[in-house]
């Protein structure tokens, strides 16, 4: 992944690309990476406190920053006004419902400096590391790692499972 902050840099790179292949290009939006977990607990959907990811080794939260514990730090709950946090939580639940997710999910967002919230994607199988995003959000909600895993297992479905 690369970020081009002007059309000239993009054009030069594409012109001199010797690898061939295809490019996926989208407009760059300045902002902060935020994620929000949704968990079905006792038959009801609840959102976990949104988690803000602050890169410490890169301009943005790229793959290297994500995989290197020293490459980022988490703020949970995220440091945004209550209205922004509420928008994130509502959007995470709505994505979970509309996409027919089951048990749990995690939606990723970008929050611009103006406070605009942009939904990016839903992850139906977020990592389950005790120190990962979902576990960190659960801990901020007062849910232990064991209780998180138990809630996830309680909603596991076997319909259609074929070994």
Structure description:
- Strands 1, 2, 3, 4, 5 and 6 form a six-stranded antiparallel sheet that branches.
- Strand 1 (32-41) and strand 2 form a beta hairpin.
- The protein is α+β, with helices and mostly antiparallel strands and 163 residues long.
- 22% of the residues are buried.
- The protein has helices at 7-15, 63-67, 82-98, 133-140, 145-154, and strands at residues 32-41, 44-47, 51-55, 72-75, 104-111, 117-123.
- The chain has one domain: D-amino Acid Aminotransferase, Chain A, domain 1 (2-Layer Sandwich), CATH 3.30.470.20.
- This is ATP-grasp domain-containing protein.
- It comes from Kitasatospora cystarginea.
- Keywords: ATP-binding, Cell shape, Cytoplasm, Ligase, Nucleotide-binding, Peptidoglycan synthesis.
- Its main location: cytoplasm.
How do the strands and helices of this protein lay out in sequence?
Elements lengths: L6 H9 L16 E10 L2 E4 L3 E5 L7 H5 L4 E4 L6 H17 L5 E8 L5 E7 L9 H8 L4 H10 L9
Antiparallel strand pairs: 1-2, 1-3, 1-5, 3-4, 5-6
What structural class should be given to the helix and strand makeup? alpha+beta
Mean pLDDT: 89
Radius of gyration, CA atoms, in whole angstroms: 18 Å
Q: Looking at CATH, which topology would you report?
A: D-amino Acid Aminotransferase, Chain A, domain 1
By DSSP (H or I, 4+ residues per run), the number of helices equals 5
Protein name: ATP-grasp domain-containing protein
Main location: cytoplasm
Subcellular location: Cytoplasm
Domain ATP-grasp: 77-154
């Amino acid at each position: 992944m690369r970020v081009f902050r002007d059309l000239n840099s993009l054009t030069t790179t594409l012109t001199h690309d010797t690898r061939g292949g295809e490019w996926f290009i989208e407009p760059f939006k300045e902002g902060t990476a935020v994620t929000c977990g949704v968990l079905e607990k006792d038959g009801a959907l609840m959102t976990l406190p949104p988690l803000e990811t602050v890169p410490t080794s890169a301009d943005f939260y790229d793959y290297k920053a994500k995989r290197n514990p020293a490459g980022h730090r988490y703020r949970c709950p995220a440091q945004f006004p209550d209205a922004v946090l509420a928008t994130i939580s509502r959007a995470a639940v709505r994505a979970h419902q509309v996409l027919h997710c089951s048990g749990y999910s995690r939606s990723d967002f970008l929050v611009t400096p103006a406070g605009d919230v942009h939904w990016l994607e839903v992850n139906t199988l977020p990592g389950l590391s005790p120190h990962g995003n979902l576990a960190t959000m659960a801990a901020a909600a007062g849910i232990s790692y064991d209780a998180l895993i138990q809630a996830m297992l309680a909603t596991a479905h076997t319909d259609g499972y074929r070994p």
